[in-house]
Amino acid sequence: MILFRQELGDVLREARRSQGRTLRQVSSDARVSLGYLSEIERGQKEASSELLSSVTEALGMPLSFLLREVSDRIAAAEGMNIPDTVPEGLADDTESLVGAY
């Protein structure tokens, strides 16, 4: 079974490690307890949107990047092929929907 929280934790851990930062450094910058952030990275706890915003800010990455990476990993695990381009006509449809609100 694919778990969102596991994929999310893996992406956060990889981002932190790629920056050469410790869990302690990121937790301090994000103002999140070290233990709780560790549990998030290990996929043991669900993260609130507020926490994710704080952590991604501490990592210097947009929240949208985190969510996209997690989404792509889940799609791959499901055997889905997600194109990197927007299908023709979809952008026009989206603009009309957004304009309605």
From TrEMBL:
One of its GO terms (molecular function) is DNA binding. Gene3D superfamilies: lambda repressor-like DNA-binding domains. InterPro entries: Cro/C1-type_HTH (IPR001387), Lambda_DNA-bd_dom_sf (IPR010982). It comes from the Bacteria. Residues 12-66 form the HTH cro/C1-type domain. This is Transcriptional regulator. It comes from Brachybacterium endophyticum.
